[in-house]
Amino acid sequence: MAKICVHALISGRVQGVWFRHFTREQAEAGAVTGWVRNLPDGRVEAMLCGDEKAVRHVEAWLSRGPELANVAEVVATDLDHDAELTGFVIMD
Which reaction(s) does its UniProt entry say it catalyses (predicted)? Predict the structure, then answer.
């Protein structure tokens, strides 16, 4: 299966609702590597890399988010998969 990376910006009620924690859980369940972080403007930013099917699964989950979230928009951009990331981390 092809490997891909997706950069995503998630807006709405996505901070203070455990969005980053649950994103990490979704990514780790599918062996997706990358990171997630809060942005000063209230959005969440994520980088997802791995097998295309697993990355697309996590990308789709971003549109729903955890129970307390209210996702307004996800802007996702496919990137060249040129670097292997290790694990999935929550960045400060």
Answer: an acyl phosphate + H2O = a carboxylate + phosphate + H(+)
